[in-house]
Amino acid sequence: MPHPTPTWLKGKREKRRTLKTIDRYIDPDQVYHVIVDAPIWPYKKDKELYAKRDRALISILYLMGCRVNEVLRLTKSQFDFDSDPDFIIVKDFQISKRKQKTLKREGIPKLDVPLPKIGTFAKFTKIFLEYYDEAPEKLFKIGRKRAWAITNYMTGKWCHYFRSQRLSHLVNLFRSALLTSRLMGIKNPQTISHYYKTIWKEHREELKK
Questions:
Q1: Pairing between strand 79-80 and 110-116?
Q2: Phi, psi torsion values for 79, nearest 5 degrees
Q3: What is the residue-wise DSSP string for the chain?
Q4: pLDDT of residue 4
Q5: Which of 60, 64, 67, 139 has the smallest count of CB within 10 Å of its CB?
């Protein structure tokens, strides 16, 4: 069953959902099934294409751990399939959320972001590629509000939820908010330090040294 449209998308104000709204973090396989098992918006035409687009949208939000407005800027020409055997590289990915004075001083920060061809996360890349071949040059020709509505209809979640899930996984994989922030273009690592969850037994070998 589709999820109801939240009141804020109907023009009414609702308390802003934050990371505190997320009561638990789930593993990549669970995120994958949230996406592939989700209901599709009842489109009246080109339903198969739009179904691929909507799943690709949520997959790339998660896989790249990025903001929705960053995803909506993506173009096909940014994707490099050949320079690395294990990754598709998204070239010059623009990072948002910077103060105007910082942008004037430093310019818009850009990263090269890898999408895995192998391993645990390759299945998210595959979902995206199922849409890529049929997509226009500007991959997602929709607005931010529409992207949020699609995400909520399909999953009952909001776009930033998938970013938070991915960042949580990366911080715990690398055991470092600092390293994760540098890889993801996040200016202040303290904003994601709370994602790191661990117990002393996971570090027993290091603690013995």
A1: unpaired
A2: -95, 120
A3: -PPPPPGGGGT---PPP-GGG------HHHHHHHHHTSPPP--SSSHHHHHHHHHHHHHHHHHHT--HHHHTT-BGGGEESSS-SSEEEEEEEEP----HHHHHHH---EEEEEEESSSTTHHHHHHHHHHHTTS-SBS--S-HHHHHHHHHHHHSS-HHHHHHHHHHHHHHHHT-HHHHHHHHT-S-GGGTGGG----GGGGHHHHH-
A4: 53
A5: 67
Listed by start position, the domains of the chain span 22-163
Residue 6 has pLDDT above 60, yes or no: no
Give 89's strand partners. Answer: 80, 114
Both tokens assigned to 204: 């027993």
- At 149, list the tokens: 């509505």
If you count them, how many residues does the chain have? 209
Tell me, what amino acid is at 24? R
| pLDDT greater at residue 9 or residue 130 | 130
CA angle 77, 162, 20 (to 5 degrees): 145
Is the whole model's pTM more than 0.85, yes or no? no
13 vs 165: which has the higher pLDDT: 165
Tokens of 92: 């010059």
